[in-house]
Structures are given as structure tokens and as C-alpha cells.
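Why this split exists: single-chain examples teach little about how molecules sit against one another. For that reason, every record in the complexes split bundles all components of an assembly together and asks for one structure covering all of them. Below is a record exactly as it appears in the raw files.
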Amino acid sequence: MSARTGLLETPHGAIETPVFMPVGTKATVKAMTPEEVERLGARIILANTFHLLLRPGDEIIRGLGGLHRFMNWPRPILTDSGGFQVFSLAKLRKLTEEGVEFRSPLDGSAVFLSPENAMRIQENLGADIIMCFDECTPWPADFGQAMESAELTARWAARCKAAHQRADQSLFGIVQGGVHPQPREWSARATTDIGFDGYAIGGLSVGEPKYDMIAMLSVMDRELPRTQPRYLMGVGTPVDFVIGVENGIDMFDCVLPTRTARTARLYTNEGLLNMRNAEHAANPAPPSSSCECYVCRNYSRAYLRHLYMANEILAPRLGTWHNLHFFLSLMENIRSAIRDNTLSGLKQRVMMVYGQKEFAGDQRD
Amino acid sequence: MSARTGLLETPHGAIETPVFMPVGTKATVKAMTPEEVERLGARIILANTFHLLLRPGDEIIRGLGGLHRFMNWPRPILTDSGGFQVFSLAKLRKLTEEGVEFRSPLDGSAVFLSPENAMRIQENLGADIIMCFDECTPWPADFGQAMESAELTARWAARCKAAHQRADQSLFGIVQGGVHPQPREWSARATTDIGFDGYAIGGLSVGEPKYDMIAMLSVMDRELPRTQPRYLMGVGTPVDFVIGVENGIDMFDCVLPTRTARTARLYTNEGLLNMRNAEHAANPAPPSSSCECYVCRNYSRAYLRHLYMANEILAPRLGTWHNLHFFLSLMENIRSAIRDNTLSGLKQRVMMVYGQKEFAGDQRD
């Protein structure tokens, strides 16, 4: 049992782990003010280098005093490197040993990302934790492809470490290698040999079956050093949280609570609700009678359904509030359960409500 | 000089007048929580009978305890009667002495509104102040049309008063008659002869030149009793506020601050800003350095522009916050100025900034 609690120190404060990081892609956690995100218990958020590079541009943000000041968030921030988005969002990309050239989806202009300028851009943004520029191994990938991707990511990781200058920013390496144990092991060793402040597991939750992800998590748990933070990128669901924590994961980020809120899906201890369903039309009950969040204390299912049906801005606001409360509270409960040695009971309750749906692969419907 | 301050008592609290009522068309002031609307200083809001009748339906709202509880707003509410929207939004309407039949813009079903069921619907919604069902005189309308519209509105007003049952709800009459003095005078006398708790001026700010509106306001000031509240419906701009107050108006409502915020227009003491303009791209200054609202204390023009360009939900949130602060503060300043006998100075400052633009008729661009 590798589950653990910890304290991650950053220039903008310490973070209790395991931690869930809400995603603020474009320097805003969608629909929320920073004060609300803080009031909900978030202590670190993620912002996306790729999106901020394209708009408003990292130089603009640097000129305005960096990302914390730009978006009025005084607590820790982690930026990804842009690698994931280059490979999943940008069309017409050209990959060489040097880096990746692609066309901006906003205006078609040519943009080049490499280990060196991914470091420079993230230094301009000024997050507390920055990430190596990696090649996200696609799924499916055969053994050879996975190995090549792990090797390129390792060569780029060495260049990132060499280019990294700001001592106030922690730099994390990223392990790739698809769902094949050997490339994953090789990648973990190569990355730890270079040596980073923390280690991220990339390339999971990209379409592979959940049992493949679970298998890779146990490989990673064996290979990654216990002395440094471990970050499972872009994951996950309530079930992923308990499985990840069991495998020694300390940090998670995912758009799931914020994105689902915008399509009227609310997470509760009793299951996932679709607030557009007609069954809620006259229901005076809150989304969850066991939830003590602002939304559940003040609004009925009927009112929330009305807001969603009318496409009112208050709908995604209240939905996001509730879902972030659910995800952040779940992670708080996980931390307590680790300390109290009751994680297996919590895992069982999460599995009972969300296990079947998630293992069927439809948690993002 | 008819400007006056007052206190309007309602079952949900007293309201200092002159007052600006933010518009919560579909039981939400767009982009805002009720707590935020209250924190900004709003003490009464308006909700629209037409929209709530069509969705979610007045019976649903009644079943959930009425509009206050449905939308979590514990302070006073005023509902319009649906008349304005029937005549401006609904196609395929059929007007008879009995009422108006129209097709729902949502699903095409047949809906009938009359004085009697406008009363019943507003009783189901449960606002503190409800409005007579009127025919909004269109602009332009010739003398004969304006007189006919005023006469029909008066006959309907008598039916509204006869049908009105809930003693805890105040009922206001509406004066129509276009921009012709005689129909306006006739309408004011006919409406006050029936006798209501307050009197509204309808059919202005519907496209007519501003000097026509000003002329009608002075006619109304002469004709309406000073003993009861006067409400200028659907108005207005900063300039309209000072002109209205000078003519004895006590209550205003308008979508202007909330609607313009969604298209990136911010009102400031220095003029109207378009936050999408490129000039703001790297500007660290707040929208207004003379403004002490939450937005101006915490965010740069550069960040706001970024949010608007990226179509982030936080953009209309912050814009609405700022604009409502501007409108509600302006009305607070107007109340102080009336008490201190300094309204002419305040009017001059508003005219210097907004007069030219508004008299050119492009304040809603």
C-alpha cells in the first residue's frame, strides 16, 4: 500500500497532498473567480502553456507581472509544457528532433515549440511548478512506437533541465511509454537518472482501457522514487483518484468537474445527475441532500434545471461550484482516510457509486 | 424641480428611491448570484412574466414556493405583466378586446394572455409589485393609434384591478399613448381614475428620439399624482436616470448594464469602454482608476480583454459586476445629490461624459 500524505512546498505556499488541481486552461478556472476557487479549498491550479502562448502570449503575461498577478490567484500554479496540446489539438504539425512546428488554431500562424522555448515560455508565465516538454505517446501505440516516444521524451527532458534557469520554479520530468511495461520502466529510469524536482506520469487516460492504466500505475509505483512528488497528468475520475492514491500518486489534474458542469452533469455521493432531465422539473430537493456546498444549501434541482434549459450563465457557475466542491472534498476525504488508515472503506464507497460506470468507459458522456 | 427621494415599503423590505432595478428576466440576473446582486447594493430586481410563463411555467414556480424562494432572492421583486414582450417578441399574435393569443417562441404552442390571467400568473409568481397587462404603444404611432392603445390599456387596467386578489402584492397601472401629449394625458387620468398603488410610464425608450421621451416625461410629471411611486419602464441610460429623476421618476429598470457587459462594453466615469479593443491588450490599469468595485480593484484591462477574446464565462461575470456597480452607484449618488441639492452638478458631469453619445442615439451599440 503506497498511499501517502505529504506537504509540497512552493514559493506561493505549501500544499497538502494528495491534491486535486482544478484546471484553469486560459488563466481562469472556467466560470469561477479565483476567490471562489480558493474558498472551495483548492490550493493549487493548473494553467496551459499551449493556450496561453497562443493568446494572450507569454510576453504579455510576463510584462503584467506573471500569471499569478495576471489572473489574481495568489497561491501555487503549475503549468504544463504544451506537449500534450501540440500532439492532440494542433493540426499540420512537423515533428523533428529539435522540436515541433505547428499552425496556431487561432490564426494559422507558424509556432515552434521545443524543450528550450517551452522552458522560456514557462519562465515568462512564472508558475511555481513547470513541466518538461514531452512527446505524449498516443494510444494505441505498439512497443516500438512507445519506446521511441519514451526515448525522444528523455532526450528532450535532458535539454529542458539544461535550459531551466529560474531557481524559484520546480521542474518536473514526465514519464511516457504508452501501456507497455518495458518502455514505461525505461522511461522512469531515464527520467530519474536526469533528476527532477518531481515526476509526472503522462500518456494515460488518453483512450486506453482502465485496466491498462491501472497496470501502468503499479509499474510506475515500483519505479519512481518515493522521495519526490508524483503527478498523474490529466486524471481523473473519482475512481481514478482512489486507484491513483493507492499507487502513490500525490497530484492530479483534470477538466472533468468543470467540463461536465457545463453540460449539466453533477457529481454527487449518490451518483451522476443530468440536470437537464425532465424528472427534475418540479423537484424542490437540492442536487444532493448529503452535500453541504453553497449550491445544495440554496438551490433546488428544479431551479438548476431551469437555468440549464434556459442556457443561463448561472447554470455552469452553480454546476462548476458543486462539482469542484465534490472533487476537492473527495480528495480531502482521501487525505483523512490515508491518515486514519480507512482508505479501503472509502474506495469501496466510491466504487459502489461510480465503479461500474467508469469501468464501462462512459464516465465522460 | 420634481426630483425626490422616498422609501417604498414592500413585504420583503423597504427600498430607497429613486431606485434602479437590475433585470432578472428568467429568474436570474444574468451571470450573477443573488448574493452578488445584493452585495452590489441592489434592493429590488425585476423578473419577466412572459419568459417565466413559457419556461419553467408559473405553476411550477408557485409549487416551489414562489419566485423569491425559487431564485434564492429574499428581497423585493417586481414582475412585468408580459404585455411588452407579447408585442415585441411574439410572432403570429392575435389581438382582441379579450386579450392576446400568440405562439410560444420556444415550442410553437398556443398561449393566451389577458388582464385576468396576467394577474393570476403574477399571483403565482408572487412578486411584491405586479403590473397591469397593457398594450405597449408601438413607435411610431399616429395620434389615433396612440389614443386607441391608451384606451385599450385603460379598459384592461380596470379588468386587472377587478381580477387582482393577493393583498400582499401591490398593483401598478401603466400609462401609454406614444409620444403624443393628449393621449398621454388622457391615459394618465384614466389610469389614476381607476386607482393603483403606483403608476408606470410604458412605451418609452422603444425607438423614439430622446427629445420625445423628455417631452413625455414632463407631461407625465404634470399629470401623475405625487403621492405614489412612479416607475419609468425599461429605462435607461445614465443620462435617462438624471432626466427621469428631474421629472419625478422613482423607479427604473433596464437590461443595459447586464446586456452591454456581455458584449464587452463597460461603463465608467470616464466613458464607455469596449474591452475587446486591441489598445487594452497589455494595459495593466483597471477599467476605471476612479472605481472601487471588486473588478477594478483586482483585474487589469489586459486580463479582461483576454477573457473577452477567449469567450470565457468569467468575462461577462466581471463585466456585469462592474456595470451593475456603476449603475447602482450612480443611482446612489443621485439620491445623495437630491438630498444635498446638488443634482444639477451631477447631471452636468453625466452629460459631459455620456450626453453626446446618447443624444446621437447610439448608446446601445
